[in-house]
Batch of 2 targets.
Target 1
Amino acid sequence: MATPERGMGGQMHTTTGGKTPRLISPEQAAALVRPGHWLDYTTGFNQPDVFDRALAARVGELHDVNIRNCLSMRPRAVIEADPDSSIFRVFNWHFSGYDRKQHDAGRVSYIPCNLGEIPDYYRRFIDRVDIAVMKAAPMDADGYFNLGPICIWHPAVIERATVLVLEIAPQMPPVVGPQVRVHRSHVDYLIEGEDAPMPELPNTEASDVDRAVARLIANEVEDGACLQVGIGGMPNAVTTLLLHSGVKDLGIHTEMLNDGLVELYRAGRVSGARKATDRGLVTYSFSLGCRATYDTLRDNDDFMCRPVEDTNLPDIIARNDRVVAINNTTQVDLQGQAASESDGHRHISGTGGQLQFVRGAYASRGGKSFICLASTYERRGVRKSRIMPALTPGNIVTTPRSDMMYVVTEYGIVNLKGKSVPERAKALIGLAHPDFRDELEREARERGIIPRSLF
C-alpha cells in the first residue's frame, strides 16, 4: 500500500506510483522556453547554472522572455549574453552585489516587497510561472529531491509553475524542513547539473566601529532571547561577542541563517528551550555562509528550514518571547526613518525582512528591535554623516519612524518609542559623530524639527 506523505503546498499524495520526471539535456530544457514566457529562477544558490547557459545560447532565437530571480551568487548567463536586455528581462526580489551592478546598468528591475509576503504574491497576484527551474540535491530512496538550506518561497513557485525543471546539484546539502523536499511526482524534467561546490558568502572583518556597536547591542541580550540577525559586519560582530558572554539558552528564529548564528549553535549557546515556535530547534528560511555552515545543516534535526511566511510574518515572530532583531541601515533622519535599501534613486539591496522583524520583535513580549549603523561613511575622500536632518532625495524608507525602536551607532543607543519629534532629534544627534552634531542641531532648528523654544 502506498504511504501518504505531505508534499509541497501541503497537498496529500502518495510516494509510490505517479509520474516519473524525464531526464533531458540542458539544451532540451532550454528549448521548452517560448517568447512571452515567464520563468522563475528562484533564489541564491538554487538558481540554475547549466540551464541558464543553455538558455543564454538561444539569445538569437527568442524575444520577450521574463525571468524572476533573487540574490544571485554567480553571474547570470542570460544577462551576460543580452547586455541590452532586448531578449531577457530580469525582475529581482532582493539584490546581491552582482544584481546591484546589473541594475545600475539597466539590465535588472527590482520588485518592491516584504520578503515574508512573497509566497502570498505568487498565490494571489502573480498570474504566470510558465517554467520554474531550480537546483536540488539528488533524489533520495523515498523519491524526494531536497532543495537544500533555502526554502524561502520555493513551495509557492512550485505550486504556481506549469512546468517544473530541477537541475541536480550533487553537492547540495539535504536539510530538514516540512517543505524543503519535492516528490518526483511533482517534477516534469530533470537535468544534470555541475558537481561544483556551493557558493559561499565571505564574511567581512569586523571594524572597530562594528565592535563598538556590537558591544552596546550584546549588553541588551538576555538569557532565553530569540535572535534574528541580518547580513553584515555589525550583526555578525554581535554574535561573536555573544560567543564570549555568559548568555545562555538562546533561541534562533530568523530569515537568514549566517555563520555567526551557526557558530553560536556549535558553541552550545543555543538551546531553543524557551521558544514557543519550533521549541528546541533553530528556525530559518535560507542560509548563506561558508562551507562549515552548510556541513552543519546537512540532515541536522536541530535545524528547521521553513518558507518565509513561517519565519517573517510579524504575528508568527511575536509568538516567541524576548525576540531580539538586529538589522543594518545606511541612513537615518532626525525623525527616525531608516533608509536601508537605496542610495538616493540608486537601488542597492531590498526591503527584505527588516520591517517585518522590526514589527515582530516589538510585538514580542520583552522583545527588542535594533537598527544599527556607523555614524559616518566616506565618499570620494570626504567623510559624511549617516544621521541626517532629512533623508537623501530619492531614498526609500525601509523602516518608518513609527516603527523604529532602538537605534545604535558607535556613540550610543537610544529607544525612540514614546519620544516626540524634538526628543527624537536630540537623541539621534547624540548618536552622530561629534564633528556633525552642531550642524545637525542648527539644521534641525532651522527646519522646525526642534522648536527654538525647546532644549
Note: The first strand starts at residue 4 and ends at 6.
Target 2
Amino acid sequence: MSTVFVVGYTGATGKAVVNKLFHEESFKRIVLIGRRKVTLTIGDDPRFEQKEVDFDKLDDFKDVFRGCDTGFCCLGTTRSVAGKEGFIRVDRDYVVNCARIAKETGCRHFQVVSSTGTNKNSCLLYPKTKGEMEERITDMGFQRLTIYRPGFLLTDREETRIGEKLVMCCMFPVFKLCPTAGSVHVDLVAQAMINNAKRPFKPEGTSIIPNALIHEWAHS
C-alpha cells in the first residue's frame, strides 16, 4: 500500500491515470497536484486529495509532495495553446521542478510522460524541450526513474485539435496496420504506469520505455 501523487491530472493522460487509480486497491493515498481544483468523475473516494499549487512558485508548496513514494507526472501543453515560452516553461521547467521537489521530499520512483523522438540537440522545439527535460531529471539520480516515450497519443477528448486531426488522417493506415508502432491510447499509457508502480520496489536507476513497450507493459 503506497502513497502516490499525480501532476497534470486534468490533461488526457492524467485523467486516464486518475480513473485507473480509482479501481486500484494498491494505493492508500492519492494526491492530485494542480493549479486549480476540478470536479472529478470518479465519485467520492477518501483516498483522493486535490492540492492547489502555483507552479511558478513550487518551492512554496513542497509539503504537498511529502510522504509520496511514487510520482506520476503527466504535465504537458502545446505550443499552439501556450506559445513557445509557455510550452518550454510547462513541458521542461515545471516538470523538472516537480521532479526535484519530489526527490527532495522522499519520492523513490518518479514516472514521467515524455515523447518519441526526444533529442536535446534538435533544432526543433518539441524534441529539444523534451530531451532537455529528460536529461535534467536523469541527472537527479532517482532510485528509480521511468521515462515513457509514447508515439502519437490517441484519446477520446471532446474538443478537436486540428493538428491531431491531420495526423490521424495521414497516419490512420499505419496506426491501423501496426497499432504498436507509432501510436498508443492514453488509457494504455496510464495502465503501463500503474502496472509499473505496483511492481516490488527495486533501485533500478533510469528506464526508457518506448511506444511498443508501453503497449506490452499495459497488458502485463
Note: The mean pLDDT is 91.
